[in-house]
Design brief:
The complex is a heterodimer of chains A (318) and B (679). Chain A has 318 residues and is mainly α. Chain A contains twelve helices and no strands. Chain A has a single domain, classed as ABC transporter involved in vitamin B12 uptake, BtuC. Chain A is 74% helix and 0% strand. In chain A, helix 3 packs across helix 5 and helix 7 crosses helix 9. The radius of gyration of chain A is 21 Å and the shape is globular. With 679 residues, chain B is of the alpha/beta class. In chain B, strand 10, helix 22 and strand 11 form a beta-alpha-beta unit. The chains are: A mainly alpha (318), B alpha/beta (679).
Amino acid sequence: MFHRRELSLIIVIAALGLVLAAIAPGYFARENLSDLFLGNMPVLIVAIGTTVVILTGNIDISVGSVFAICGVVAGIAAKGSGSVLVATIAACGVGAALGALNGSLVAFLRMPSIVVTLATMVALRDGLRWGTEGAWVQDLPPGFQWFGLPQSSYPVVACAIVVVLQSVVAWAMRNLAVGRAVYATGSNETAARLAGLDTARVTFGVFIVAGALTGLAALLNSVRFNQIPSNAGLGLEMKVIAAAVVGGAAIRGGEGSLSGTLLGVILLGAIGPALTFLGVSAYWERALQGAIILAAVAVDAVRERRAFHAAVAASGPA
Amino acid sequence: MRQGVRFRVSTGEWILLLALSAEVLLFALIAQNFFTLGNFFEILRLSVELGLLALALTPVIVSGGIDLSVGSMMGLAAVLFGAAYHDWGLSIAGAAALALLTGAAGGGLNATLVANFNIPPLIVTLGTLSLFRGIAEGLTRGAVNYTDFPPAFLSLGQGYLWGVVPTQLLLFVPILIGYAVLLHRSVAGRAWYVIGFSPAGARYAGVPVGRRVATLYLLSGLISSIAAIVYVAHLGQAKSDAGSGYELDAITAVVLGGTSVFGGRGTVWGTVLGLLALSVLRNGLHLAALPSELTGVLTGALLVATIAIDRLRDVPAARPQAGQEEEIPVKNSQVAVLCGTIVAGSLIVAATNVWLVRSVRSAAPATSAAPAAAASTSRRPVIAMMPKAKGDPYFVSCRVGAEEAARELGVDLIWDGPTSLDAARQNELVENWITRKVDVIAVAVENRGGISSVLRKARERGIKVLTWDADAEPDARDFFVNQATSEGIANTLTDEAARLLGGKGDFAIITGALSAANQNEWISFIKKRQAEKYPNLKLATIRPSDDDRDKAFAETQTIMRVFPSVKLVMAISAPAVPGSAEAVRQANRRDVNVIGLSLPNMNKPYVHDGWVQTVVLWNTKDLGYLTVLAGSLVTQNKISSGTTSFEAGPLGTIQIKGSEIILGAPVMFTKANIDRFNF
């Protein structure tokens, strides 16, 4: 199947790349690319989960708050136990549990996901503020930063995790029954149910996966530093939804791909620093980012409309 | 299609009405001066801007769409309104016309992209959310704050009719009625419901879908700009951050009011109830002196509980794909149990808090018997103290000192503030404290133009007003507890930068949010100092960190690549200093210095390892202590306008210059002394 949105995105990214190569070749230095990758890694991991949720026709806007909580939990667990493994399990476990809370309300009570996750977003964020009073988790055990690895090898490890995660999920979504069930649920839930799928379980499941991935992202981000702030992930939900949607995921569900999301994350993650490299003032950055998102989707819409008109013309008057 | 045709109250609205009555009853019992006519109108006044956005969003959501750009449009319209009046010499009417035009143009852009290009509204308005706010920031460089509007205009947002009715209700009520008629009594309204049920079905039924949808987004842009004008009149200031985050509050109100996000279902009356439920909750929590964080927790619980009960009682005719609602695989009893748990949970949280606050209050006199007895036998004075943002570690450390002082002096301390930087919330809280009749209000001012009018109102009602951390206009307060002037801080930082660089070289500034007032003031003084004293220093760039450690980290990495000549990063937001330091450390750039304004604790590891050279700040605990002490002395009339100094217990003798209580010089935390401070 040919994805037009992905092609549009590749064109936009390539154009941005060409401009950068001409004006600021330093952008493509290995260290810069490595830093860019690490900076956007949490966005990508969370976006994988969000894409799967969007594919079922739901949405999860609580990821930013869950991200902050999981980071703090990972830090406290690491301090308490001194073991990174315990911290990993704690972060992913808490993420999955909060995902399960969202999922059960959406799947079993059939409440709209945007309402449920809006509620949990606000409640969890303010709950965390209340609990921590803004204090950071400090004095982490020495083996915590970079999992105790040397700084230079952490990007390699992180990259390996992300590549494996992205390709396994992408492959599963295409080839495994569970992946097809996600698409089926999102395309037409009634039809999927009549075809014998337990759509409530599918929905419940994707929220747990999204929560656990958010926990993993929080952990992988936290280990890059030696203290953990309690206000992390503000606005993260907007970033990941924008990436998924720019990457071609239909907000109604059933349409979209993980490769599209990957391209969306690359485009949105590359723009910010690229504008600095190109010498754009920080004060105009947000306006330009909005314009580029709109341009990317408008180009696609125009092409789609042309294709539609061409098809109508070809089929002739009825 | 049962709803909408008549003004019939649906099950969801009954539940909401019940919840609202429960709120009112609860707060009437536990909150001071809650159940009064004046407070009722005050709640309405504070709901107008949000209410306008919620009204505009109701038909948008009914039609199955969404508009996330309403808050940003408020920012853009406010900035253009201010610029038109102040810079381009237009009259208020002309400026208002321009703001409305902007709203219509922005709404038109959304409408074109949604209706003509068939792009999903979520994507379009996500894009314009950044675009509108970005243009507002770009035009004003984040910093310009337009104030000084004529009093006749300000009375639109601050005045009263017949002594009690807020003026802006005159604007709100017609728009409310207009929307009710439009949605429930007009052809267009019917079309929006039909489109919400099924756009394809609507098209086959002969509804001009594109045109009807376009009207919606156009209207929502227009109403956002009206909300912007009311906002400017209410706060007396126009700045690019007007209305940030309002879109989510507005959506919460709409959804709480029973409008289905799938479209096809919802009423204007439901939205009004939802809006009132939110506003009453916020107001009641403030008057009961419960922490603001509870607002979020309880709003979430309320949202889940109302919708869940609604699902249980009322099988909705939602969109066709989800039409098999009868097959809900859970029993109603299970739903009821779950809802019960949620409601019970939130009540327990609320009750524990009431209990905690009460118990703290009753425990306090025992620990501070002597000074309290000395003061008099009368009621303990209540000092309400507001930080700029509650979760900020800087203000958390101020609180420690404030509470210590309150214990020693035998005063009741209410410590509350917005959970994130938000000038409008500060005003709202001051209004609520006036209603609660506290004795002293002490505010760390986020926006001086905006808050001064309410502080003046507090003084008129006989409440003593102090400002701390950042000042309001001098006639709006009795005293300003001044920890260090903006100019003093900027000079200290610039001098330190010059010292570390040997008087010449490039440096970069990492600020908080681009629109943060404090930081922008410091930046302007830093530039001034550098131009006057250090011509060989060059400011290479200013980057925002949005008070996010991780963003400061990434920005510093980029700065070091793009500007290799930068040898010093000056981070002027507390979380940004450790973020920058970590970036320099990971790049192993020993030649780059990091200095900034931050808290000692989060920078200790970096200062000890030599990545951060100097952290500049004052003793925040002392600042909190001094503020409460000054508040207590003011209520006893022990300091008044003529006083030049007073004894401040552990802080020694404190000077008063004019109406400014001076804490002392800023502290420079370096390797040598940083371990002596713990905050």
